[in-house]
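User: Please predict structures.

Assistant: First:
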Amino acid sequence: MDIAYSSSITPRLISDLFFGEKTITFKSCMTQLFTEHLFSGSGVFLLLVMAYDRYVAICKPLHYLVIMRQRVCVLLLVLSWVGGFLHSVIQLSTIYGLPFCGPNVIDHFMCDMYPLLKLVCTDTYIVGVLVLANGGLICTAVFLLLLISYGVILHSLKNLSQEGRRKALQTCGSHITAVVCFFVPCIFIYVRPAKTFYIDKSLSVFYTVMTPMLNPLIYSLRNFELTYAMRKLWKRNIISHIK
């Protein structure tokens, strides 16, 4: 079975830009689905690990090297990937054996759960609930845990010096920005019944492509040298335009 894309936003692969094809085999679609949720699920848990790392660094700085020793870091990294793998396997298993009927065209630029569920020839209520529980509720729970953890961190800043508060706010600010950019679109897409909206494609592009591209910039803004260089370049451009 082949699946065709009806979206005009982006083709499936870079090669599609040259050949103009927007079709994908069922096995390739399932592989794409598994890969998407593997990396996004692992990224969700990695953000949680990063929040714990920041909590230890800011709230327990003298014990940081003892708590976050190499073995613990490796364990947390492995658990993040295992969590992403389990999440992806569950998502794949809920849809792999379902019966599909024509015309097998999805209004999206990638294989995702809700667009694929629209092609199923049977009742998808139970499957939709499973997708919501495995995707939406996990995103919401992790997002709330992250907000609580950063709230605890910000509350503890009163015990730090002025310089310590400034560095902690810069670090937490960059992390919170990355968290919001990823989780808000993800929650909007998955915390609802199995329905699709036109805006889903734009939001999917944002949290799967734009957010990872913005992350290096977001995390680099706390670097004084980089911030100073960007300000200097900005002033130079303004002066050149004025002249």
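Second:
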Amino acid sequence: MNNILTLNNGVEMPALGFGVFQTPPDETAAAVGEALSTGYRLIDTAAAYGNERGVGDAIRESGLPRNDIFIETKVWISDYGYDETLHAFDKSTRKLGVDTIDLFILHQALPSEFEKTVGAYKALEKLLADGKVRAIGVSNFMAAHLADLMEQTEVVPAVNQIEVHPYFTQSAVQKVDAEHGIVTQAWSPIGGITSYRGEGGTSTFTDPAILAIAEKYSKSAAQVMLRWHLQEGRSAIPKSVKPERIRENFDVFDFELTDDELRQLDALDRGVRGGPEPEAITLESFGREIPES
């Protein structure tokens, strides 16, 4: 299966990437270096993660041409607003050590001050027009947030990064994304968040239905879930600091799930969100200063 998705502006992006959410800054360069040597070419980070510098270090140390690596990072809500977001781009590129960002996205909607969200996105449109970013998008935007944003801006987001795993599929948001040619990108794609927020102590990693499919193909539960994302047209960005897990998560291109197995995985949806409620995001509760360096 091809590991390439074409975004709605014609830019090509690897479908399977490597995420560094909650990866300690001092472990980031080693983890990203391992991912790049394994074959990952999409690296997802964010200003709020505090590890953009480690991502940049690993990319330089890899010896790979810059054009071979797709860098994705996110603006935090504290830097929303037109001028503030233009400055956020400067901060991120300085930490990453690059001139351009392949995909620059808004990390959350800010429903209580949506005009700041719109201002931030208009800054992304300016960066896109100026050739400083190759594609722009959003993260954790629900259907209403997308509708409000697109009503007040010109460029349809290329990507909407949201929580998606077999226990929480957000099918309504995925449907809206698809209607507008927006790629759904899954964070927590293998349901790691269910390990500590699952119902009754259950997790996607120990789900009998997933394990049965995994046994059939001599694969892990994680590999089955990642294959499910790719076959349904999503991008997925698993994370790990363990070299064996990093390699395992990339080894998903040598088997194919049946339509029935895809439906079985879809049917596991419990409708229970693991991450923060998007409507509850406020500067008072979630604001934090993003350092200059």
